[in-house]
Structure formats: structure tokens, C-alpha cells
Write a structure and sequence with these properties.
- By secondary structure, the chain is mainly β.
- The longest helix has 6 residues.
- The N terminus is likely disordered.
């Protein structure tokens, strides 16, 4: 079973929802947080990795299409990136829509947004090979990479690949801090402690510095996945 871990916080009661009931939990002394399902968003399919971008909540939704069904060998579907608009209280006030600039029938998302640079760091399947697009190569060969997008005329446009994408390995699931100077991500690149480890890069004047493995305090022989940062610098991830 997956566990949610909060780094840099010594006491944590994890909130959860059972059979649609609203549960409350105390994350810190004097602070009460209520958790309830977003009925406007949730479907019989899988919704994962919400992220706030301006007045919208972005999230990855498993979707089916004629193209994706042909390419997924296990009968599942690829994730696409969708959004809903939220108000100041976090209430959903629109229907989910596919985000303009997304929709390639392969995996897209999770994403993280850097307000200081306007960059959207996005996990995407590395499907550039003509053999992959034509279906000659099996789905297991399609790795995940990070790309950097910027908004142009209301549409997210890919600007560049993340400079530490590594051929033959997954580099995915970005999370950036509020200052935009530290980027966390997950990779199975050589030299780690297990299957997928969490790494981080620090931004310099010339771009992102080399990846640093977060070490055995965080990483294990298993898979660490889906890092997420709060504005206070707390790091959540799955293991």
C-alpha cells in the first residue's frame, strides 16, 4: 500500500475520505482542515496529481481513445492533463476541460507551475521515435521525460526539453519550489538507491545545476514517486 510521507514535519495525521464522508484532521496545533471529494471532478476513472495554476486546478485524468487503446498493452489508458476553474475558497466553478496545448494520446502530467518564470514543467511520454508512433515498438519502451512549456495566446507550447532528460530512463514528476530556484523530480537513472529515486536541481545563472540524489534519508530500495511541494517548503511524496 502506498504511504504519503511529509518531509521536514515531525507530526502528521493524514487526512482521508471513506465512502464519500467528510473527514477532518489536525496537521498542526490549532489548524483544522476539512477534506471532501471533489464530485465535480471525480469520475469512475483515475484522477491524480492536482496542481494550482493561477485560478485553475490542473490534474491528470486517465482517458480512453481509439489511439490510446491501440498503444496500451495492459488494457489501461494514458493520462491526459485537464483543468477546472476554482474560486477563492477552492470550490470548483467550471466543468473539466482538456488543457489547450495538451492531448497527444500518450501520458501527459503531472505538471508544476513556476509563477516567477511562467514556466510549466510537464511530464510527457517521450514518443518522438517514428517507430513508437507507428506502434512498431512496444509501450514498455516509451519513457517519461520532462518538458518546459510556456503559454502563448491561451495555449501551452513546448519551449524545450529539461536538460537532464536521459535517453533510456524515466525523468518525470516535477515539483518546483515557490521561489523557482529548486526543482525536484523522479528518475530511475543509474546510481540511485532503488527503482525510482527523488532528485533535485538548483537553478543557477546558466540554467539548472546537476541533479542531486536526495539520499537514503528519503530514497529507499523501492520507488519514491510524485513529489509535491507546499508554499512552506514541505515535501510530500509516495513510497
Amino acid at each position: 500500500m502506498n504511504r504519503i510521507i511529509l518531509l521536514l514535519v515531525s507530526m502528521l495525521l493524514i487526512p482521508f475520505v471513506v465512502k464519500g464522508q467528510v473527514r477532518k484532521t489536525v496537521l498542526q496545533e490549532g489548524a483544522i482542515h476539512y477534506v471532501e471529494p471533489l464530485v465535480e471532478v471525480n469520475t469512475p476513472f483515475s484522477e491524480i496529481c492536482p496542481a494550482i495554476v493561477g485560478n485553475d486546478m490542473y490534474f491528470s485524468l486517465s482517458r480512453t481513445s481509439k489511439a490510446s487503446k491501440k498503444k496500451v498493452t495492459n488494457g489501461g489508458s494514458f493520462y491526459g492533463e485537464f483543468k477546472v476553474t476554482i474560486d477563492d475558497q477552492g470550490k470548483v466553478i467550471s466543468s473539466p476541460i482538456l488543457i489547450p496545448g495538451f492531448g497527444n494520446n500518450y501520458h501527459e502530467g503531472p505538471v508544476c507551475y513556476c509563477p516567477s518564470t511562467g514556466e510549466l514543467y510537464t511530464t510527457m511520454s517521450r514518443y518522438y521515435s517514428p517507430d513508437i508512433v507507428s506502434g512498431i515498438l512496444p509501450v514498455e519502451t516509451i519513457k517519461l521525460n520532462i518538458v518546459v512549456k510556456k503559454e502563448e495566446e491561451g495555449k501551452w507550447v513546448t519551449q524545450k526539453d529539461f536538460q537532464y532528460n536521459l535517453e533510456g530512463y524515466n525523468v518525470a514528476h516535477p515539483a518546483i519550489n515557490i521561489n523557482g530556484d529548486t526543482l525536484f523530480f523522479v528518475s530511475d537513472m543509474p546510481g540511485g538507491y532503488g527503482g525510482n529515486d527523488i532528485y533535485y536541481c538548483v537553478r543557477t545563472e546558466s540554467g539548472w545545476g546537476k541533479p542531486n540524489n536526495m539520499g537514503h534519508v528519503v530514497n529507499t530500495e523501492g520507488d519514491e514517486m510524485f513529489p509535491c511541494l507546499t508554499d512552506q517548503g514541505q515535501l510530500f511524496f509516495f513510497i
